[in-house]
Amino acid sequence: MNELKLKLVALGLSEEMADKVIVTVATFVKSKIPANYHSTIDEILAGNAPDFGSILGKLGLGGFFGGR
User: Fold this and answer.
1) Average pLDDT, the chain
2) Would residue 44 count as lying in a domain?
């Protein structure tokens, strides 16, 4: 989240406003996806790369990229 916050501040937002924007966008995105993916949004915002293999597995696409 710090990387995103720095980018928002570089655009001219205050740190407080950048924090509010991040929370607002995260809340909006989470309202549009199933609850079991909310932690993935949190991980992305924390700067961690999500495990796309397990995400695809949840969608029934686990073998999509050659996995079984």
Assistant:
1) 83
2) yes
